[in-house]
């Protein structure tokens, strides 16, 4: 009998509930604060930005939240996603480790982002919202929301970080094909954008600035709301379909992970895979090491400060307790645009402080080397973001080769690189550099914490 | 119970044999001829270009050919591919038709091409070949062969039509990521290329020219062979895994197609899906209408002549009896680069002459309109090539809406458009034109038939 390569679930195995890790933690994460009063924000503070259903999910203490059938209908376009056993990579490495990867690149836009874009669009449409605004960096999130809005008849308006807007025209074209309107950020359309452009007419933008613009626009239009692609509790909640499916797939494989690795930008891909496994760990049913991997150029967990900070550059959002490099921090223009965020999901930060997960940082050249190695053995060219997880996976697999340990490694492969191929071109041409964040630059940025 | 969206097979349902339609036809197709003697070519004539195993498959009269386990191992990276029921498109069209699509975009390079690239690389490696040469237009085939060569340790050298090389840099980067070397064609590296450049220094190339260059290089190097991505019998043979899987999936769905539509360039995607259904039709087990869809700008089946012609521009290949627009024909630069070939698979041509399949031609604007409609309802942005099949599918579905017929339509969705998004950009910007092939241009081209 041939060795099985992938573990595919039937549509009837699509999860019916999202998992909320908060009630299973020894203590809840610190609440977001109003920047003026420094008091916890209430639902009313968030109402101009989010529909009631999502605000309720943001603060829920229920362990499980039902997935509406209208959302599952759209999930079925690509879910359940496959779990692969990376047999060809194992052979190429000569490792006794067993490597698995959960692949989210099968979604319409090529990443895990639609897992939350779809319910966000659904709940907004259900409450009569007609237009969603958002930011996007590399463009995965903007594409996902554009796709989701097309499913429920919503307008979608995206502020895309100028650097990506110019360098990655394919992402913009994908958003437009799904019917969205895309603006480069900073733009002249918002006060936040105009303020930045006045100071820096050539600004290439940042996620923090783009968030300010999208938030500002949503707050001014009673029929519009804002959608965020990572960081918040309800976003991570929606992403847990990844981990719930992976647990069922490990049952099919008759295996249990010893190490789980995922890349972290805002934290949603990592949390989506890791939280259901963390539940099993907290319940004593398995004991995987859970490891977040971040870029050396934007190391919020490993070098940031755990403090209250704004989620955006202009300071329009509530204060979030998180590992942050400072909300004015603008990371080097590394190719993993989805990991260039100054902060970390407050929930992931809290769990990291509790000692339930580890974190490491890796430079982008090692990551792209891992990406090429993976592409040539497994066929999938990984997006720049998950090459960080793959680099960590290969580190672990090579340690096993030395020690002879047959560890089981589970890797979050959150997307493909079809629209990021110029980054591979730069790597193959030897034009890529590793920009280490200097202590001085970090201290300067942290000095701006509110 | 929720309505099922996709029909997914287990790895154990991966076909173990390819299907050869020839012995089931009322008469065999006319043989390829040596251009000098006009006698049928023998295996020795083909030995400088292809390994023995593929030459044997080219002329086999066996109904089934076993798929080597080493090939199935690689197929498992993405196969079996899903069959989708396009429920959201049906709703958007308001049609009583039931629309299914077999999606090949889940492969590592995003199309059906690896189905034959993998066995071609395998058989070459097994016979000691160390280097494969090929041509590519839009780049799907070149990417597929680059991926396949990486699996078996072969060097891969690709001549890419200059127009695509310049306009679609992402495809070149994908080939290079898989380890291939890519040259623009016409190139200074071959006699064929130099001859063209002497006459037309600014030539943007054609598939016919690129084939000449790749063939010439392979013929000069005893360790090298040539690989072709469509047209030939063994290529269509390998693609029948698509149709065999689809038959099993229709059993799961409890349905039977009344109409099958697929786009035709060289014919391999179409034949791959259609031949197993044609077998069932010839055996009287079902009776689908089978319809080939080609671009109005390159209409070999609907307006070409059924005659012996060269497969390449320089006249290095055997003469093939096929529907051809003339081997010197250079089609308008439409966006479906994979359909810009002057001829048609001799096997498809023969089957068309036997009256077993229909053919229609559609202009690219209608095709892209269908592509956008499909993307916004089903999530997948189809490659320019299969938008032709989708346009034909929508024509049929709208006819059903008028007549009230509940026809079952099966569509070959052979790939996604991630690396072709600028074509959608041109369509959305209103910059796309439909260039109809004039009778005068066609007559002029046909006058060059050998």
From TrEMBL, chains A, B:
Family: Belongs to the TrpB family.
Keyword Amino-acid biosynthesis annotated: yes
Known partners and oligomeric status: Tetramer of two alpha and two beta chains.
Pfam families: PALP
Organism: Amycolatopsis bullii
Function comment: The beta subunit is responsible for the synthesis of L-tryptophan from indole and L-serine.
Catalytic reactions of this protein: (1S,2R)-1-C-(indol-3-yl)glycerol 3-phosphate + L-serine = D-glyceraldehyde 3-phosphate + L-tryptophan + H2O
Alphabetical keyword list: Amino-acid biosynthesis, Aromatic amino acid biosynthesis, Lyase, Pyridoxal phosphate, Tryptophan biosynthesis
EC number(s) recorded for this UniProt protein: 4.2.1.20
Protein name: Tryptophan synthase beta chain
Pathway: Amino-acid biosynthesis; L-tryptophan biosynthesis; L-tryptophan from chorismate: step 5/5
EC class (word): lyase
